[in-house]
Each structure stands twice: as structure tokens, then as C-alpha cells.
Amino acid sequence: MREILRTRAQIMRSIRRYFDSRGFIEVETPYLVASPGMEPHLEAFKTVFNPAGDQPDFDLYLPTSPEFHMKRLLAEGLENIYQIARAFRNGETGKLHNPEFTILEWYRAYSGYEQIMNDIELLLSETGIDCNGTSSLKYGNRSIELAGPWERLTVQEAWLRCTGIDILETTTTSGLYEAGRSIRVLNLNRNDPWDVLYFKIFLDRIEPRLGLDRPVILYEYPASMSALARLKPDDPRVALRFEAYIAGIELANAFDELRDPEEQRRRFEDARRERMIAGREPFPLDEAFLNALQKGLPPCAGIALGIDRLIMVLADASSVREVIAFPFSPHAD
After folding, report:
1. Where are the domains of the chain?
2. Vertex 40: Cα angle to 38 and 46 (nearest 5)
3. pTM, whole model, 2 decimals?
4. Sequence-ordered alpha helix ranges (H) in 63-172
5. Which architecture, in CATH terms, is 2-150+214-323?
6. Lowest mean pLDDT across 108-122, 126-140, 250-264
7. Engineering a disulfide at 238: which of 86, 220, 273, 330 sits with its beta carbon 3.0 to 4.6 angstroms away?
8. d(CA 152, CA 120)
9. Is the pLDDT of residue 333 over 70?
């Protein structure tokens, strides 16, 4: 653990050096928020604020991401910003998950997500060199080269390559169910929603094959799976979203950010309905964030990167628990 923590500290210094040398401003955002995020599949930790006097109590949440507040800073005039923060997701444990984890987010105003793709290639290459003396790392029994250019695949290309399914043409739930069954994905349920079927097939047949020799950027996600991303102007079936993978592990998630306040409100309300249909708590809309969009968010792109997963890969560890000094315990040790 002593060596892991030294590696962790070196990686943090390397990350800050990368952004500071490029003129980014490091920012801080709250850990008590009115709305934790709207993703239908995420659960948040809730607490109650007890104000002094006769004021009524009200609910607050621990953030699943600092995204909303960082975009509010962009709307106030900041341009290139980054943050190394804690984020919290209830119920998430396992090899790649800890309910409390460290996240790196950065945003570029007046840039598209192609520049964020360039950032992550350079950042990980430089961090690998700082950490291990080389941009090539050993993870398990594989040698992986972090220096760019990385492989770039559209989601449609990855599905066709790994499953033979054209995911942009397989738009019905029954169609995706039958397609998954035809390639013998066994854990599918006829009553699963489309997005659940997507994830089950993706996790079974596609994700384990991504980034085995060189990291992969998977881009142009189906529009229905990108609530915070701008749609591709010449193909509204897909959104300007990408994820980065190393050794079959999702490391980062990025967007060319949606700026239309009315469209964003509609997508949030759709997400709330999805949560209610699934029997989950419908989180309140973040009105301060929506007001910031109304005021005007500049063209921008941003990304969230899991620090614990990055350290896990660079340290050749088999679980994020190995790279966290005090991993989650159900007994709160």
C-alpha cells in the first residue's frame, strides 16, 4: 500500500502538471447539492439539512459528478477548467466500483470533443511516463502502448465488428432481443428495456475486446444514451459522445455538451419519468444549472475520468480496492 500511495501521489502531480502547463484553472465545487445528476441507472446518497430557527428541513445529495457546477462556471465566463474531486454513487461496489471514488473532470470552452480526445491521449501518455518511466504499460499479461494515436471506433463499427449487429438500425426492443439471442448472449430477458439489452450485449461481447493492445476511443453513441450530449448535426441518430477504454475497462466518458436549455429540460424530465417507471427516486431538476444554460453556455466539451481505475491500470492492480487507502466497507470501518 505504501508503494501504491506513492504512485497515486505521483499520478495526481502529473495530472495537475498537464493541465496547469496548458493554462487550465483548477476549480472546486460543492459536495452537498440540490440535484445529484439525472442518469436513470445511477443512485445517489441523500442527506437532510437542518437549518437553524423555524426554517423547514430539506434534502441534499452527494454528487454523482461535479458536472453541473463546472458547467455553471463556464456559463460565468471561465473557459478551460479542471477538477480532481470525490464523487458518490450508492450501491456500486466491485472490481471497478467503490461508492466513494475520485474523479477527474475537465472542460474546454469553444472546443469540440475532438480536442478532448487529443487531451486524453496526451495526458495518459505523459502520466504513464511519469509513473513508470515509459508510455508502455503492462497490465496482467498484456503490454499496452499509451502513446497516441489511439484506435478510434464508432459505436456502430464496434457493434458490427464484435457482434454483426447494426445497432443504429436495430431500434426496437424486440429486434435487439432477437439479435442478442441469435449470437447466444444468454442473460437477456424479453421484458428488458432497449438500453438494458444494449448494456447486456455490450458488456458480454464488446467491452472485453476494447483496448487490449492500445487504448480505444469509442464515439458517436446512440442519441437515446446521451442525455447531456449534443446530437451530430448530419446524423441525429447519434450523439457527440465518446468513451475511452484500456484493457477492456471503461476509463472515461466525454461529451460535446448540449447547450439548449429547453432541450436539456426535456431530456431531464424524460430521465425523471424513466426513474419513476423503474421504481427509483425521481431526483429534482437542477434549476440553477438550467438557468445557467438559459443565460448562455459557450460551445464546449468535457470529460469525466475515473482516477482510481487509471491508477489500477498503471499499477497493474486487479481491483480499485487495491489502490484506495480506505476502500468501502459495509461496516464503515
Report:
1. 2-150+214-323
2. 60
3. 0.94
4. 67-75, 113-132, 155-163
5. 2-Layer Sandwich (3.30)
6. 126-140
7. 220
8. 13
9. no
